[in-house]
Amino acid sequence: MQADTVLKDAWSRIPSLGTAETAFERFTGKRMERILATVVAIGSAMLGTQAMFAAIGSMSTGTSAVRVVLLIVVYVSLIAMLVACVIGRGVRSASGTFAVVYLVALAIWPLTVDAGHERAVNQPWIFFLVNVGVVAAMLAFPVRIQMVWAVGVPLVYGYVRLVEGEFAGSFWTLTAFDVSFTLILGIVIVSLGWMFRSVAAGVDDARGRAVASYAGAAAAAAAEEERVAMAALMHDSVLAALIAAERADTDRARDLAVAMAREALTRLANTEAAVAQEGSDEPVGTAQIVIELRRALSERGADAIVEERGGSGLIPGRAARALVLAARQAVGNAVTHAHGRGLHLIVEGHGDDGLTVTVMDTGGGFDMDAIGEDRLGIRASIIARMAGVAGTATIDSDGEGTTVVLGWMRE
């Protein structure tokens, strides 16, 4: 299947063992950025410490106030970058700030020497941070600007180094070696960062296609299953209504055929609603069931109390829908046969364990045994409907009224 192919492609791009994500996100890309930031923080901290020792050593022979200011500015931005890399927040902005600050400080370095001070022969502290400036650009900028930094920073370093040595012949060979080394290392760093990010993006894209493919397949399968179930239901309902209409030779038979046709049309209309209104298993809370029952009372024009008791909880949507539909039928019976006298609804939640709906009226009651076999209002719409979702329905009726108790409990 296409979904299997996409999933295998996703796994083939994952560089290490892991678990598939339940919901698609740029998980691998985020993880890779975190790894790169951590590695950069460790390496930059080591080079920064080395440069700090070099700076302290150079101060013993005297240094200009401007270079002290440069030292402070560069290290403040470097420490900010290290902190951002460690905590994983503001990495791009902090790294970009250091990359720019360091490049500017390196470029103006020769201009900050005291007029009468002898130029340094050994490498000053700022030269130890050349590759830190490149990795900072790798974290902060797009690939093209990263390459500019990878090439530009070593070249600026080489020029500044030659200026420090007053372009003496002995400096050219050593500077050429340093520039070539830092240039190659900077390009390798940028290339590795691009490669790792590309692999991570490929894994995320493949995972996204796999999740989308399986989600589409699951949705199609669910829709097909629902279509088949509803087709069978419509076939039975419509066929039964047609047979009843054909055989209707009395007023009662015709009324029954009309009722059956109305029920079939109602079910057909329900299939047009979202999730067919017959059964998403998305959890439904007690408050939503109370709202549905109040809406049913409003549609019937009944004046009744809906009392909510117990703790709120969630039950499967299919069970909640069956409870509401069965309760609507009970309300309809109470309005039709008892004229809504004393109509009272109680919704009692049992947390996540289940729910009970009680519909009571003070009408004249009825005898269950006297109800004809062809009357489906109670047997099909209440008892059978609750049985279909592993629920219960009990009906007690006498001369003082009728009580219908509908329940669903989690096994």
TrEMBL record:
Transmembrane region(s): 35-56, 68-89, 95-113, 125-151, 171-196
Protein name as catalogued: ATP-binding protein
Domain of life the protein comes from: Bacteria
Entry keyword set: Kinase, Membrane, Transferase, Transmembrane, Transmembrane helix, Two-component regulatory system
